Amino acid sequence: MNKMNITRKKHCLLLIILSSIFLISSCSDDDNDNNYKSDVFSNIIVFGDSQSDMGNYPQSLYYQYDPYSSSLNEIATNLYNPITQPIDSDIFAPIDLGSLQFPEVTDTYDTVALSVDTQSICTGRYIEKAVCNTRQSNSTGWLEYFAYNGVENDELFNEILLSSWVAYTNEDVDSIDMVSVDYAWYGALSPQTGCYNGNQAVLLIADECPKSDIYSVQADYRESQILENDKPPLSAADSYTLEATMPVPTLYQQVTQLFLPDVEKNPTQVNRDTLYIFYSGANDISNTFFDWVGGEISFDDFIDAIWTTIPDYMIGTHNASVETMIRGLNLQGQDRGNIFMFPQYNLGLTPDINYYLMQSGINLRPVELQAFAKVLGELVKIYNERLKLLTYKTASAYALIESDHYPKWHFYFLDNLYDNMNIVAYGDGYSRTFGSPCNDNEYVYDNGGVATGNVTPCLSRLSDPFLFWNTVHLASPGQQVIAQSALDWLKNGETILDTGALQSYTLEDLENAAKAVIAALYGYTTDIDDGEE
Questions:
Q1: Closest of 215, 195, 201, 188 to residue 48, by C-alpha
Q2: TM spans, by residue (predicted)?
Q3: Model confidence over 51-96: pLDDT tens digits?
Q4: Is 121 helix (H, G, I), strand (E, B) or coil?
Q5: Distance of CA 7 to the CA centre of its chain
Q6: Cis before residue 437, ω within 30 degrees of 0?
Q7: Pseudo-torsion of CA 177, 213, 255, 291, nearest 10°?
Q8: Is the pTM of this model over 0.70?
């Protein structure tokens, strides 16, 4: 199997593709300062999946018996929104990773709340006579830590008004200049085509999810999650059925169906100091991995997805999300900006991997899980390097075809995230809870303590800390690692053209890393069926 020639040929076309993009905007630059580079960013635009979703995917009334959850107790993945964990400054102070402060409303930082979201949560085991309580906890994700501390501590932003896309559309703030908008969605994949729900099931035989469906179905679902006379309007089963009909825009569709139409409506939403963050790929990698080890796709297909297909969704090809965004902005007279590409932390750290092993009859102690996570982490490191190389090639191509070789688009790559998350995950403080989620414990299951605002044992300052809230989403410490890593990188100011990018992994290295995962899973070296006779 040799994909290298195909990949090289694709990237040889990159200069031609980018040249065609810049023909659109070559005469529209009113700036005489070709060497301009943002020191302070005006606002943030975020694209991605549940790791960055701060309210686009609706909250559910029910928090137990989710048929799609990998939790041992079937506790819903979408327990809170954003999909992180209930957290406030009194429950869990920031970890000692840097100088992060807990986000709070100030004169220079605020968030836009969605007024139509349910403020209740019900115990799903009582379907006919649901026991419902007022939500007394909210979540704080990396984006909020990042934005708030970027204003307060690092002076990366002068002020931030942060909003989910749904709130931006609903709460009469879409006419305000320089709102920071989060377009990320729980469950989002990254391809250009297809329409999927939050569980990545295909919804429509269509090229993409229409904006009208994305908006209207989530609005209908939100309405169904508001109590009527203190009772849920739908049973848990009916609620999950309706939720499964809700389109979730892919990374590409977040750009084309949501963001670019917003800019067309309000061109002053962005400017040359806007910071565009792309943080996607975890669902694509995870689904591909489980499809492969489950025998649903071949070895060759898995290797091709990690080496080429998934990175290409993001950047480096004509139809990649980054290039599509830049081309769309150029058409609207926006020909400068700052792009921040996020790689993945080691997905082998997630409790989802541990639960998969348990369901396969493989029960590992925390120290054994740590060892397996390092093996699986090699796949993620190779994927990250591929993404970095594409980012570097794209940034270089843009700089090469621009006047005086001064780039109008500055590209950053979050190169410290993988190592920073590993440092925390493999630290002594998390050794006892490695591979275990905070929410999947008897206290939550039996008492609904989180739902009523009580502190669960796994969030107590006196207990062992947890890096993950549920099987796939980080708890507050992990959220802070992402935020601190991003703040440190931007404060340092190095673009990817400053740091460069070297190819240290080959296609053969990826194949060997994949075989090592199988060998670790089953305890012996095996030849993988690659679909060839």
A1: 188
A2: none
A3: 999 989 988 887 666 666 777 776 666 555 444 445 555 444 445 5
A4: strand
A5: 26
A6: no
A7: 140
A8: yes
